[in-house]
Write a structure and sequence with these properties.
alpha/beta, 6 helices, 6 strands, globular
Length: 207
Amino acid sequence: MSVPVKLIQKEFWYSRHGQTAANIHKLANGRVDDPLTELGETQAKQAGVALSAYFKDSEHPFERIVASPLIRATKTAQLIQAEIQKRTSVLLPLTIDESLIEANFGEYEGKKLEAWYENWLLGKVFPEKGESFQDLQQRAGEAVNKINQLSGTSLIVAHGTFFRALRSLMGLDISLHIKNATPMKITPPSKEDKGWTLFSPELPVNS
């Protein structure tokens, strides 16, 4: 069995994409490229508003935005970028990273998120033509480590299950549901605090 990748202990920001139709119907849309709903676009703009408050004078909480190639994440990132520019005159560079794509659920793509999903998270289900949760952990960790090797701090805009894989690498609860378009500051362990912590500009997120 391979040893799980270790995350570089560096601060970064993360946001899940805004709402899609699949979210409303609680479907597993890993690689299905569905767009944001009208509410999803509003959520993304609200995330941009919340993040804009952290750009004060010459202080920038992050220097770039990196997004998954799926349209729901890319559009969310674009709306966050536009809102920050509108409110602060700061135009952040936005790049697309293929390695941030959501989990491949294989035969379960488009299916209801039922017992199979919980068993998949536990490593008890391996979807045909899909990706195991262990494979996703490795891919997610490598993807974020690559981004965090860049100078400065990044905002990553990607997906819910992708973030569960990251939380597992942080030793955090993977059952915690992160709402659509909730931006979070991810802080690594320090001498005083032994674990990773998550904080949202809107609401603190229990780690």
